[in-house]
């Protein structure tokens, strides 16, 4: 569990205390995380002022989430109500049970291409089952304290697949943005491009005009609102002082800018479509409208054979959900100077993804844009996220019939804007790429291309393999074995210097692991019988920070090779981890405990003794 944050009570430990007066319980080898939602800590010091801040933030985020939830669902190949159900149910559960005080959960843009591909290949029913299985996996990851492992995924992989997903979202919205008659698009990028290319002659210019206008409003609303506010002067000010300048504080502009551009574009486009009866496709013409209320609880059919088929999509949903959620929580921490509980966050997300599919919902995760909006609107506790879910529920109950007139071109424009903001495009510029190593560039560009051309799972797998290989190479390069000059060796116990031809000594630094054992193997080649072998070989491992089993096996092979040729291996100054492994594996006994020394000087004394014993053998014979 992370350290407690000032002002919040520490979460209870996941390991139970020993019973009073009884024998202490054995420590669990894998202690489980305690289920302790952040909401419990927030409610202890909750007051009226915090409630009104959370209320304002929850209402604002609820309005922001409305068009996004519908747009994400439609782009994923699902009806718009699926996005609303997800935002309501998962948004409430993630806020109420999560480990971050301000994170907002719901459908996310990163899931669009994943969900679309799963629906195209496996069908909607199997998507729901895969989401339930992914939820169980996420809960298990949090329960077994695996939340911190997500931080080990390199930044280059995250940026690469995030930008790749953004490109795929943009491509998926071209048809609705241009009004193309494509039918249902295939899930593969190259196939999508071929279908879109063949459908270009069917472009609808009224749809294009509406989509471009919507995109301009979405992208430029905040600047336009601030500009209008600075130029506007209240009537009372003009009457009192006609020469007064415009309102320099821009209070009106800031108030207008608080209304999201996505909502303004949605309202204006829907009104224009209703008044002008534009020949554009709407939610009503494609989906038949949105129901006023949640659907009944439905249990999908599940079988072991089906579970085996859905392993790949389940892992993809769980991996992406964990990465997105914990990345979002870290962004939230930086905004409010807090620290989230990654394991509790994964457990909450797991529960949300288990429950939501029973109501026809999509995979859910933490969402950065809505979380940032929540913080900037004053939200400071999970209550704001719960109010955001309640706001969406009220809007759906009261205004669901109006959603039928929403143009799909406007939702496509909103998604294009969201996708553009998802990507860190500056990282792909030549100026930035030149600053990083070749390894970083290969991982970044490779993950990006594989995400676009193939899929996220392949991209992350290849990216992790490349990252591991590059890391192994760098660690192996840091492992050095340097010969110690005979003159630099301490003398033996009798005060005489050790003979250079019979004693060889080396300093080892770095880590002796499977990627660096070739450097030990190069000391003596067992195949070269003509190679001179020292009578005593000393390895000073005082600066060896880590040793793995493969490295230990290599040391044992070196010991055996020396023994076959009449030599002896002496090791000195091992660190705690190195010493522990040598002892547990029985290596010290095989080498001879007398041949391990605490210091290099003691090792030289031992070498002198071994040389003396070696000199006495012919005489004794």
UniProtKB/TrEMBL annotation:
What stretches pass through the bilayer?
55-75, 82-104, 110-140, 152-175, 203-226, 255-276, 310-329, 394-420, 440-473
The membrane-topology field of this record reads:
Multi-pass membrane protein
Question: Locate the STAS domain: which residues?
Answer: 503-607
Which keywords fit this entry according to its UniProt record?
Membrane, Transmembrane, Transmembrane helix
Q: What does the UniProt entry say about where the protein is found?
A: Membrane
What is a biological process (GO) this protein takes part in?
Answer: transmembrane transport
Low complexity bias: start-end ranges? 1-12
Q: PROSITE patterns under this entry? A: STAS (PS50801)
Region (Disordered) location: 1-23
Q: Which InterPro entries match?
A: SLC26A/SulP_dom, SLC26A/SulP_fam, STAS_dom, STAS_dom_sf
Instruction: Report the domain of life of the source organism.
Output: Bacteria
PANTHER family per record = SULFATE TRANSPORTER
List the protein's name: STAS domain-containing protein
Q: Which organism is it from?
A: Cupriavidus basilensis
Q: Lineage from the top down? A: Bacteria, Pseudomonadati, Pseudomonadota, Betaproteobacteria, Burkholderiales
């Amino acid at each position: 569990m992370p350290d407690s944050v000032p002002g919040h009570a520490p979460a209870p430990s996941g390991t139970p205390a020993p019973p009073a007066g009884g024998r202490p319980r054995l420590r669990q080898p894998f202690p489980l995380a305690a289920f302790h939602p952040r909401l419990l800590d927030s409610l202890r010091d909750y007051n009226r002022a915090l409630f009104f801040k959370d209320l304002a933030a929850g209402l604002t985020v609820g309005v922001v989430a409305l068009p996004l939830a519908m747009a994400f669902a439609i782009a994923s190949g699902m009806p718009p109500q699926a996005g609303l159900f997800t935002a309501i149910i998962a948004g409430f559960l993630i806020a109420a049970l999560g480990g971050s005080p301000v994170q907002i959960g719901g459908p996310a843009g990163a899931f669009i291409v994943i969900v679309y591909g799963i629906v195209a290949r496996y069908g909607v029913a199997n998507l729901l089952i895969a989401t339930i299985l992914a939820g169980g996996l996420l809960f298990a990851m949090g329960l077994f304290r695996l939340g911190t492992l997500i931080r080990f995924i390199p930044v280059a992989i995250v940026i690469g697949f995030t930008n790749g997903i953004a490109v795929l979202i943009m491509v998926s919205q071209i048809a609705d943005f241009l009004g193309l008659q494509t039918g249902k698009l295939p899930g593969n990028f190259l196939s999508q491009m071929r279908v879109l290319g063949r459908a270009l002659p069917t472009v609808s210019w009224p749809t294009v005009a509406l989509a471009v206008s919507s995109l301009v409003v979405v992208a430029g609303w905040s600047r336009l609102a601030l500009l209008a506010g600075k130029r506007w002067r209240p009537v009372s000010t003009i009457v009192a002082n006609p020469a007064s300048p415009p309102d320099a504080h821009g209070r009106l502009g800031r108030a207008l800018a608080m209304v999201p551009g996505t909502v303004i574009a949605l309202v204006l486009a829907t009104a224009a479509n209703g008044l002008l009866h534009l020949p554009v496709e709407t939610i009503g013409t494609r989906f038949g409208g949105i129901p006023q209320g949640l659907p009944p609880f439905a249990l999908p059919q599940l079988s072991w054979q089906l579970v085996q088929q859905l392993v790949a999509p389940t892992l993809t949903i769980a991996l992406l959900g964990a990465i997105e959620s914990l990345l979002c929580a870290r962004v939230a921490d930086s905004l409010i100077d807090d620290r989230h509980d990654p394991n509790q966050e994964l457990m909450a997300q797991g529960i949300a993804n288990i429950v939501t599919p029973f109501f026809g919902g999509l995979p859910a995760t933490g969402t950065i844009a809505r979380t940032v909006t929540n913080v900037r609107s004053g939200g400071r506790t999970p209550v704001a996220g719960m109010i955001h879910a309640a706001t969406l529920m009220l809007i759906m109950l009261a205004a669901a019939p109006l959603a039928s007139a929403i143009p799909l071109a406007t939702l496509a424009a909103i998604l294009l804007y969201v996708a553009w903001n998802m990507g860190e495009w500056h990282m792909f510029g030549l100026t930035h790429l030149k600053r990083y190593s070749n390894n970083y560039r290969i991982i970044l560009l490779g993950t990006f291309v594989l995400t676009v051309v193939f899929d996220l799972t392949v991209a992350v797998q290849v990216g992790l393999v490349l990252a591991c290989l590059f890391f192994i190479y760098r660690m192996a390069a840091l492992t050095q074995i340097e010969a110690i000059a005979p003159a630099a060796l301490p003398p033996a116990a009798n005060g005489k210097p050790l003979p250079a031809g019979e004693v060889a000594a080396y300093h080892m630094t770095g880590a002796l692991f499977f990627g660096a054992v070739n450097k030990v193997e190069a000391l003596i080649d067992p195949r070269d019988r003509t190679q001179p072998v020292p009578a005593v070989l000393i390895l000073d491992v005082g600066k060896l920070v880590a040793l793995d089993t493969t490295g230990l096996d290599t040391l044992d092979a070196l010991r055996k090779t020396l023994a076959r040729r009449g030599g002896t291996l002496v090791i000195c100054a091992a660190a705690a981890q190195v010493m522990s492994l040598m002892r547990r594996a029985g290596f010290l006994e095989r080498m001879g405990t007398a041949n391990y020394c605490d210091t290099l000087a003691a090792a030289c004394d031992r070498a002198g003794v071994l040389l003396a014993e070696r000199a006495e053998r012919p005489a004794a014979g």
